[in-house]
Amino acid sequence: MKSRTRTLLALLACAVAFVTPALAMAQAAPPDAPPLADVSAQAQTSLRWNQLAPSQQQQLTPLRDQWDRLPPQRQRKLMENAQRWASLPPQRQAQIRDRLQRWANMTPQQRRQVRENAQQFRQMPPEQREKLRAAFQRFQSLPPEQRRALREQWRNANPQQRQQWRQNGNPAPKRPPRRH
User: Which of 153, 154, 129 is nearest to 16 (CA)?
Assistant: First the structure.
């Protein structure tokens, strides 16, 4: 049982550190990303929301309020993605919309953190990425109450405790209160 708890807690640390790295790759380009060299003039022109096909609007609904502020290249990429997503099973489409909604609700600082985490994830060796994916799946399989408790424990940990948690695969033991 101790081994399982250690594994689950390591999973939480990984999950918190690398939450939805694919989200950052799929939905956001870094603000300082260089423009593509061969982008046509059309690709440089913003699209209005009403220019999207109804199926694209349905897929991209969470981004509707932000659509006009997105760079034209990002709009085009999202349009392409929305066309591809339309052929996915309904359950997968719902997951994508939920992730887009979470992205739309993030602050710029949170988005930057997700991008940085995604970059770190991409730079990991393949074995480490696979290990992290497996740990995240185990974390996702926990009951919601247990996931919430682990997240809260992570949030309340100081940097030294978090580092120890990452290394040991479990949270640092809580010290009993000092008696004076």
Answer: 154
